[in-house]
Amino acid sequence: MIQTITSALGEPIFHLTAGDASYVISIFHGFPLHLYAGPAISDDDVDYLLVRVGHDSVVPRPAHTPEGWFSCDIAPFEYPAYGSGDFRPSAVMVKAKTLDQTNPTGGAPTTAVMYESHEILAGKPVLDPCPAVHASDDECDTLILHCTDPATALKYDLYYTVLRDCPALCRRTVIKNTSDTEPATLLRAYSASLDFTTIDPQAELVHLWGTWGRERHMERTPLLHGSMSVNSRRGASGHYHNPFAALVTSETTEEYGMAIGMSLIYSGNFDITADVDAFGLTRFMAGISPDGFEWHLAPGAQFVTPEAVIVISGEGLGKMSRVYHKLYRRNLCRGEWADKERPILVNNWEATYFNFDDEKLVAIAEDAAKCGIEMLVMDDGWFGIRNDDKSSLGDWFVNEDKIRCGLGKLVEKVNALGLKFGIWFEPEMISPVSKLYEAHPEWALQTGGRPMSISRSQYVLDMTREDVRDYLFDTISGVLSSANIEYVKWDFNRNLTEAGSALLPAERGGEIFHRYVLGLYDLLERLTSAFPHILLEGCSSGGGRFDPAMLYYSPQFWTSDDTDAMERLDIQLGTSFVYPASSMSCHVSASPNHQTGRVTSFTTRGNVAMAGAFGYELDLTKLSDEEKDLIRKQTADYHRYYNIINRGDLYRLILPTDSYNGKTGKCASWMYVSEDRSEALFTFVVIRTSVHPVYFVKLRGLDPNAVYVDQTTGREYHGDTLMNAGMNLTKNYRDGDSVVIHLIKK
Ligand code: GLA
Q: Is 0.90 surpassed by the pTM of this model?
């Protein structure tokens, strides 16, 4: 719902209601100001929240505002512009010739964003070219603030879409150059910015950091005066930071207190900054990283920023995550597989690496069929002459020395066993040792004359080029049409360096990173439209591009190349801050684990992998009968629990990082509750035990008055007992032991 009232100055105040949250914007002397974001409030005229302090000599006043207290340097802007007295980080900076042609300073990056008019619409307009949340006219409303820079021909449309039944708000900005003759240059164009007047001065930032094999570990840190930024300059959202952060107060917990999440639907260079000024005002902004970014806006052209999704929770980080899960599962993922039960797969990567042939794959599929596994995925190494990672990327032709019976026949054999068939591609890459590179060395990203950095023996294709995308579409389509292929794993195993394109004119050199991402989205859109029945799984050396934009095309993503169950606890629980269980691909792999050497029981490996899109990544032909029996149990459990885990509500009970207190060992625990609260699935894992450990875990999200029956023991508990007194799990555990309890309402 969007309500408009008129302020004492005769300017509009907009009160946006998203589920149980409010977001208030006021126009003040033409400036769009941010007044409030938080749990729902009843008043609209809250401009008393503006901070009225300042000293003229250090905080300049815009000439058209009355003398007194107003200053751009402390005003809470909705879309802060560079250069007129707001000295904090700006959301927008544009070089444009001023309309006053006699003014010799036209072209300085001073920018202004001043309200002109607004529109309120039911629904959410589609704004190409970036992926965005989709919602029907019954699900949301949109406010568009039409703004202008009075000195130039630049117009700024600020889009706010509020969801009606959940506290989420989607923001984008459209920047238009309305000049008929003069180009402009964007130097900064963020998606969203909020200036908090009311957040606890001791605000803290929650974000997800990592590296290869160790993605999305949650970190929480107090903000200090100055800026803190999580970002990527790698050409991909990356392993190191995720395009997500949340502002919380020092008191916020999983279940209590304020949490404002900021998630950017984007797969390229990004920046999320939290900046605290001398008055304790916190600016929180997200968008394309300004590093190396410069966008040439031709006369008449417009630029649409990626979308930022802000979730407002007054009930802690747990609720914030649950809102993201539902929204992203229902309103971001698309297509046939968005919310459909995913097949249990076995992937041959950790089973064979590059050393396989058709017979080996069929042998794995035969065992898989006997254990309840539903799909075989043929990973890297089936094409060109690829027997290691040193060649053939780009040569998407079946290697018939390995797949001797041919791809069509192999797929038929696997299908005859009752399994689907999936295949691996790394479309955006080119090996210097490849037929493609021999034919088209100019298709690799490069900046003339500079040596090209090599990474995993490969270069990156220039995805800004249409001919490159056409080649990829044609060759990949050829493979996909040649056999009954029902799944694709889309990998991306290095980041961008020397990012230049022979086809971009010099004034567009600063556009390459964004254009690369747009090229990727274009190819993904073409392929997913041409093969809508295919389940696409994203991958980037594990989870190096696990971001909301990729989920728009591929509803599941390989969470990490680290398949060690203990390591996966941090990775998966960190990922769960934003991303739903159905999006996290999680496999049971061999023990000792290939990445860490750790030995973990088959049961615990299954219990941990059950928290996502479930599968196996080991050589089934080498397993004992006892292990195969366990697979039969796990595959049956996966179907039994699918609805609770993937469509239910997640409660993080103990994070591995919180748990070690010197007495009770180190553990992790979480639970899912079905939407109607009739069933719950509780998991507890001991990472490192100690002598006589004591473990009580309080459950959450149950119906307090209902009686739940433990499906293993038959013991009955009231929901309120489990939530207030908790489960007593005290026992002598070994490292890596785990407990799963399935509760059903009586
Ligand atoms: C990446 C992926 C792995 C596997 C290999 C194949 O590392 O993350 O799962 O597909 O590539 O080369």
A: yes
